[in-house]
Amino acid sequence: MTVTVLLFASYAEAVGRSSISIEMETGATVRDVIDEVRRIGNSTRLPPAPMVAVNEQYASRDRELRQGDEVALIPPVAGG
Q1: Distance CA 16, CA 53 (A)
Q2: Fewer CB atoms < 10 Å away: N or C end of the chain?
């Protein structure tokens, strides 16, 4: 199945793009996508447990994904 991963700020810089399409096995979870993004980019830029949204709703790492889902990896935000 194909999922789209949206990347922001340092995550996008690490991978070199703001979005990527990833082929995953049926039954893959958010955790599997995070692991795959680490393999593609500079894993030191992605914290052990980044905030994640699936189809614009916050999601846990054990959420099972479906064909066409959009997974956003959300970097920490600092304000001033």
Answers
A1: 20
A2: C
Cβ atoms of residues 73 and 15 within 8 Å: no
Q: For residues 1 and 71, is the Cβ–Cβ distance under 8 A?
A: no
Regarding pTM above 0.70, the answer is: yes
In the block, tokens 């039954």 appear at: 27
What's the pLDDT tens digit per position in 7-25? 988 788 878 889 999 999 9
CA dihedral 47, 37, 73, 55 (to 10 degrees): -150
Q: Which of the four CATH numbers 3.30.9.10, 3.40.50.10320, 3.10.20.30, 3.30.450.40 does domain 2-74 have?
A: 3.10.20.30
72, β-bridge pairs:
6, 53
